[in-house]
Amino acid sequence: MNIEQIRSDFPILDQELYGKPLVYLDNAATTQKPQCVIDAVRSYYEKDNSNIHRGVHTLSERATAAYEASRETIRSFFNAKSTKEVIFTRGATESINLIASSWGRANITKGDEILITHMEHHSNIVPWQMLCEHTGAVLKVVPMNEAGELDMNAFTSLLSERTKLFGVVHMSNALGTINPIETMIKQAHAVGAVVLVDGAQAAAHMAVDVQALDVDFYVTSAHKMYGPTGVGVLIAKEVLLEAMPPYQGGGDMILMVTFEKTQYNDLPHKFEAGTPNIAGVIGFGEAIKYIQSIGLDKIAVREKVLLDYATSQAELFEGLRQIGTARDKACVLSFVLKGVHPHDLGTILDREAVAIRAGHHCAMPVMQFYKVPATARASFSIYNTEAEVDALFAALSKARDMFA
Q: Mean of the pLDDT values across residues 123-141?
């Protein structure tokens, strides 16, 4: 991989803050956008701006073709069976809420159990809590250990015929842990549960084949994958989607409306009410093509090199405690520095032009498990370099000296 060539694809990286080159290490929050994605969004607005599926004029036809081409690009990337299984949403959060509201309210009743894990993002906790409150179902949680790995024995013991849905994060945004989802999907299916995998962190870093995994629902967000904000995807088995009621009512999700009865549209349009984020979907497709042009295998190797390099420095850095040391992890270095609150650390590092995330990362139960109010998180991507890791630890040294 030619890292300098890749960096040149991302115009935002070519800038200085406070007289120093920008070091962007907040990729788990959102990735930067390559020029090809920016150009695709701009081209739509400059040349093809029109609503889709509803017009016979040239602009509408071109916009529709580009939108549906992105659906096929994403279907192929995740190896879904057909484009009927590819539902565009505003992001992973809306995708999970769609499942909870549509599939959940149609299938979950009092006494049923929903199983999630201790390391879930709030977006894979709160919708299930809301559903349990509404239905009388019970929410259960798979515990984890100090390394930030799920307790697989506890997972097995928590599964039962009462388990109707198992929700699990593919890769933890707070810890970087990669969970053994293939094994977990098989075990959950063995008791009759459907499985939702939150792939928001994973999909830009490793290959995901939804058919090989036999996963029922897989969700992710474009902005974690070098694409635009405000757009994401739910990939689900067609048989489940066919049986699910619409999530929202309005335009484009209907075939016929009378005051007596509404006939819903075919998949995937049944779940895409209203004018969608057309430019965002087109940009999402272009982002997928960009990832494919580099290759996920090469991306994984490069990012492991970066994480190993950063981890080796962290292990030698006095006063630094790593949060999350799973054997199988990627791209994320979460830590606390003795005597320095993570929010102060984030502010100090910003003055050194190093952008990290500081907070609970929408994973408060993880923070409660480690008995910390927050962590500092550096997260890596294909455009990061060893020199930027050095800059991170140089800035951490300044912060440690400041508070000594």
A: 98
Helix residue spans in 44-125 (DSSP H): 58-78, 92-98, 105-107
Give the tens place of pLDDT for each residue, 296-314: 999 999 999 999 999 999 9
Q: Which of 36, 132, 331, 362 is catalytic?
A: 362
Question: Is the Cα dihedral 366, 334, 16, 228 positive or negative?
Answer: negative
Calculate the dihedral angle through the C-alpha atoms of 178, 181, 187, 192, rounding to the nearest 10 degrees.
130
Task: Write phi, then psi, for 65 (nearest 5 degrees).
Answer: -60, -40
**CB half-sphere exposure, 5, CA atoms < 13 A:** 4
Find tokens 């054997």 and name the residue. 327
The angle at the Cα of 215, spanning 214 to 219, to the nearest 5 degrees, equals: 145
Q: What is the pLDDT of residues 176-222, one digit of tens each?
A: 999 999 999 999 999 999 999 999 999 999 999 999 999 999 999 99
Full set of structural domains in the chain with CATH: 3-30+295-403 (3.90.1150.10), 38-292 (3.40.640.10)
Q: Is 362 a catalytic residue?
A: yes
Which pLDDT score is estimated for 265? 78
